[in-house]
Design a protein that fits this description.
The protein is built from 15 helices and 14 strands. It is α/β, with parallel strands linked by helices. Helix 4 packs across helix 5, helix 6 packs antiparallel against helix 7 and helix 6 crosses helix 13. The radius of gyration is 23 Å and the shape is globular.
Length: 495
């Protein structure tokens, strides 16, 4: 899920052949690798009932792995997944969910948003000490069957080798498309609508996987739901003096300040949006403001954002490099700038502490999932569940086409192609107001610049209070559930 520090790695391409689980394939694995794969239990199937406002919902859960094979026929990876299927066998939509990073496991979306069990972080969604696993009456299982997938190198998914053949934009998309195709074939679900749900880099990944499914697997998806996505990397990993990127981030900075002051108001955020794409963008793109006009500009930026006016003027209104510390000297998280933590290094001018969201309470998703799998899914895996793999992240290959730069990565072209070639395809993008890592303004810009003939009535942007993982807040999770259910109903023509 998470877009944490990304570094290019060696690109090693591989074509993945068809795979089936068998004892013969296990004998093809080298002894050391067999030892690693041997830590994975056999697939487990359990029966459950989810209490919902519509009444009890019986469902079947499967925790297991899918094998991928290389061109030599040997097992190249085992990919862990958890599937939830309504017990009555109804032919419902099937949604495949994954997170991003690269290097993040699916436990975030699984136990945070869509699965039948959810980690409750308290009324404000940020209390790690109060965390507990509870039923999720707003599980997306109410309107779609679900399959959560951990990409290779995350969760309990492991490669037979060093994993380089999976750690890259194209390689990853092809591998995920293969896993999805194999699951669909085995489960006999070719005839149901299929959706992809991805968070952060996983939103970017979802567009790539949708095209890979179409082009290499002959499988068409009905829609993609992106949660806090990176769509255009140039708008996220931008230069600190890029006027457009700064303007697209500005409303999220204001929203976070309003949340910190317990004064959040949608109208105030809308006014910040107007200022950001007007006077603010024009001022940043031109010469440095000076005189009375410049003073008024810096005063307004400081007032709206809560950042010290002297710092704002020193930075010429570009805020990216002065966001890490609040005026009170605390650390603000880019994942949710409304959340702060004491600064363990107050003597340094910039933040050098762990992130209070990514390295704080959300880390609980990993241990909660491992316990949940053992106790409720009957999947007692003795392997460490890798919630966030820095190794995968460091080694990621950003080469795509002629570009090898992370900043050139984009999924807009994939979205355009999907909308153009699949008349039934729909796109939903969800964001939190206070996320300044992947701000909602960047996604709005991408959607606003799609050809109207493609986008009209087929794309939607929804925004909730909270940050990158807005779903830790019960009210925002509730809003996302209602919007997603409506999205599926519109696609099916049943709204």
């Amino acid at each position: 899920m998470k877009l944490f520090r990304l570094v290019s790695a060696l690109c090693v391409a591989i074509t993945l052949g068809a795979a089936t689980a068998s004892a013969d394939s296990a004998r093809d694995i080298e002894p050391a690798v067999q030892g690693i794969f041997g830590l994975l239990p056999a697939d487990a199937v359990t029966e459950h009932v989810l209490p919902t406002p519509d009444g009890p919902l019986p469902y079947r859960a499967t925790a297991g792995t899918i094998e991928l094979h290389g061109t030599d026929g040997k097992v190249s990876a085992k990919v862990f997944y958890t599937a939830y299927i309504r017990a009555d066998g109804a032919r419902r939509p099937l949604t495949f969910a994954f997170n991003g990073g690269p290097g993040a496991a699916s436990a975030y979306l699984h136990l945070g948003l869509a699965g039948p069990r959810v980690v409750d972080f308290g009324a404000n969604g940020d209390d790690g000490a109060a965390a507990r696993l509870v039923d999720n009456p707003e599980s997306w299982l109410r309107f779609t069957d679900l399959v959560f997938i951990d990409p290779v190198g995350t969760g309990w998914s492991r490669a037979a080798g060093d994993g380089n053949e999976f750690y890259g934009i194209r390689q990853d998309a092809e591998a995920m498309a293969k896993v999805i195709s194999l699951y669909v074939q085995r489960s006999g679900r070719l005839d149901v609508p299929k959706y992809l749900l991805g968070e952060s880099y996983g939103g970017f990944r979802a567009a790539k996987v949708a095209r890979a499914l179409k082009d290499s697997q002959g499988m068409l998806v009905s829609g993609v739901i992106m949660v806090s996505p990176m769509i255009e990397a140039r708008l996220i990993f931008r230069d600190s003096d890029d006027p457009l990127g700064a303007a697209l981030q500005f409303p999220s900075i204001v929203a976070a300040r309003l949340e910190r002051e317990k004064a959040f108001d949608v109208k105030s955020v809308a006014e910040a949006e107007t200022f950001a794409m007007g006077d603010y963008l024009v001022s940043l793109a031109g010469p440095a403001p000076d005189g009375p006009e410049g003073a008024a500009f810096y005063d307004k930026v400081a007032r709206l954002t809560g950042i010290d006016r002297r710092l704002v003027e020193r930075a010429r209104g570009f805020l990216g490099d002065i966001l890490s510390k609040t005026p009170d000297g605390e650390i603000a998280s880019p994942y949710d700038a409304a959340l702060t933590a004491p600064d363990p290094y107050p003597e340094t001018p910039s933040a050098r502490a762990d992130d209070p969201v990514l390295d704080g309470y959300t880390r609980a998703y990993g241990s909660f999932f491992a316990s949940y799998a053992r106790r409720e899914l009957n999947y007692p895996c003795e392997m460490t569940y890798s919630l966030l793999s820095l190794d995968v992240n460091r080694r990621w290959d950003w080469k795509e086409g002629r570009s090898g730069s992370r900043g050139d990565a984009e999924a807009s072209s994939d979205i355009r192609e999907l909308l153009a070639t699949l008349p039934g395809f729909r796109l939903m993008v969800m964001h939190g107001y206070g996320d300044i890592l992947t701000p909602y303004g960047a996604s709005r810009y991408v959607l606003d610049h799609l050809p109207p003939t493609l986008a009209e009535g087929r794309t939607v942007l929804t925004i909730y209070r909270g940050g990158h993982m807005f779903y830790t807040r019960p009210d925002s999770r509730h809003g996302a559930f209602g919007d997603a259910r409506a999205f599926y109903a519109r696609a099916a023509g049943t709204e």
